[in-house]
Each structure stands twice: as C-alpha cells, then as structure tokens.
Sequence to fold (106 residues):
Amino acid sequence: MKEALNLLGLARRAGRLAAGRQAVRRNINRGKLLILAEDLSAREKERWHSEGKKYGFKVLEFSKKDELGRALGMRPVGILLLMDRGFARKMEVLLGEENLQKDSSR
Fold:
C-alpha cells in the first residue's frame, strides 16, 4: 500500500493526477484510471463507476480519504484520476499484487 501511495504523490508532482471532484470532472476526458477511496459513500461510488464505463477507463477502490490526502499533501480526498497510461498501469500492478497478498493470507 505504501508503494501505491508513493506513486500517487509522484503522479501529482508530475502533473498527471487530478484530485477531487471538480479537478476530476475538468480532466475526465484525459483519464486512464479512476481511484475511489474505500470510505466514499455508496451513491458516490456508483456515480463514478458509471463515469468510468462511460469514458472507458478502469475504476479501482483503494485506501481511505484521509490516507490518500496525506499521501498527496492535501486535505482528505476521495476521488483521484490518473491521466498517464504508465502511472495507471503501475498502479494496477501494485494494487493487484496487494489484493493477491491479502487473498493468499486467508
């Protein structure tokens, strides 16, 4: 998880990450991967999952709002959009490995 949070910070510094509802809406056409906080409301998650389908990019749920915000050096944030294919692929790999590790420990 720490690697994934570090990657988000790097993407933000590189200008390849939109954080928050308004920033994501402004950049939705450039999106490659949408990340939603696990503690986002069910209604909000449903809305953004349909946006992902509409624009043709994956939507992943990861971490909590306060952890995401802390990793980015900002207040808690629940919606992030990666706008770079390389960052998006790396994030999918990191989160995929993390989910595999959680499943194998059961």
